[in-house]
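Tokens for chain A. Residues wanted.
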């Protein structure tokens, strides 16, 4: 269900604890990256509003790029690199003068598996900003453009056992995917990375107070121990259409699945902030510090906090 943003804010659906904008001035010199998910709805009003504010941020901050955490095209992904949705949901929406020059580092969501997921991988060869060289991949700090920070983009669809069941489009499209191979790759890459900040981006959240989906038990079992052992700074996700910051044993879990609509969200154990509002996240690196902020579809800063 989509909610009127003003009604949601007035209804006290923005909840936070800990350090926020009023208590932290922010870094003087920095490099930032935008985080957005669950956005591809053929120019729906909130999608355009959020895109406009992303462009504004890209013009005012030193932005290295955009991390898309999946569900890039509703309702059923794209069928080919020539699908009209590339224009109606991406190229003609995120086309502001500041945003259109930024690279997009993209994960696949569950709705993307309703189409042809390989088409999104292949579009990398047809675009100067869409970056999905495989269904899971690493972007080193030099390519990411954020000092001392590596990004690992994963395909969480292949890490959830029930997705392989039956003969639906999701199961059929996943048959070529080896979850064990992906996990082994991620373990090796995280172990060999020596940067201060390791960011992992996928579609499904590990923990979430979202009203529709919530926690993902398979990811709690497979990813959480690995992330803690290998010093992952933050896990970026979507799936639930809201904005959240949750801390679990030092791991920052960030949900930015509000690129086009918002659903109700609740606080849970470890919640630092949550909001039922269309919007997006921004991670900013300055020296050895990492800062998170959330902005809504009108550009208002809802939350700001140092992660380290």
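Reply:
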């Amino acid at each position: 269900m989509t909610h009127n943003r003003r009604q949601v804010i007035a209804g006290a659906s923005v909840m936070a604890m800990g350090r926020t904008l009023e208590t932290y001035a922010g870094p003087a010199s920095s490099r930032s990256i935008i985080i957005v998910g669950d956005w591809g709805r053929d120019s729906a009003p909130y999608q355009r509003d959020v895109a406009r504010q992303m462009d504004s941020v890209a013009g005012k901050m030193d932005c290295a790029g955009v991390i898309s955490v999946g569900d890039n095209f509703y309702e059923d992904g794209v069928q080919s690199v020539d699908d009209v949705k590339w224009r109606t949901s991406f190229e003609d929406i995120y086309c502001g003068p500041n945003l259109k020059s930024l690279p997009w580092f993209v994960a696949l969501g569950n709705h993307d598996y309703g189409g042809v997921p390989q088409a999104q991988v292949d579009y990398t060869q047809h675009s100067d900003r869409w970056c999905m060289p495989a269904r899971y991949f690493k972007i080193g700090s030099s390519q990411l453009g954020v000092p001392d920070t590596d990004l690992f983009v994963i395909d969480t669809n292949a890490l959830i056992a029930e997705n392989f069941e039956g003969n639906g489009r999701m199961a059929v499209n996943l048959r070529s995917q080896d979850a064990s191979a992906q996990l082994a790759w991620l373990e090796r890459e995280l172990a060999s990375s020596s940067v201060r900040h390791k960011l992992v981006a996928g579609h499904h959240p590990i923990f979430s107070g979202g009203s529709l989906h919530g926690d993902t038990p398979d990811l709690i079992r497979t990813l959480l121990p690995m992330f803690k052992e290998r010093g992952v700074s933050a896990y970026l996700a979507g799936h639930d259409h809201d904005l959240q910051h949750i801390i679990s044993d030092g791991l920052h879990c960030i949900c930015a699945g509000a690129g086009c609509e918002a659903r109700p969200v609740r606080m849970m154990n470890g919640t630092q902030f949550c909001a039922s509002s269309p919007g997006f996240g921004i991670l900013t690196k300055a020296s050895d510090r990492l800062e998170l902020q959330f902005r809504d579809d009108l550009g208002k800063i809802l939350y700001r906090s140092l992660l380290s």
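The radius of gyration is 18 Å. The longest strand covers residues 279-286.
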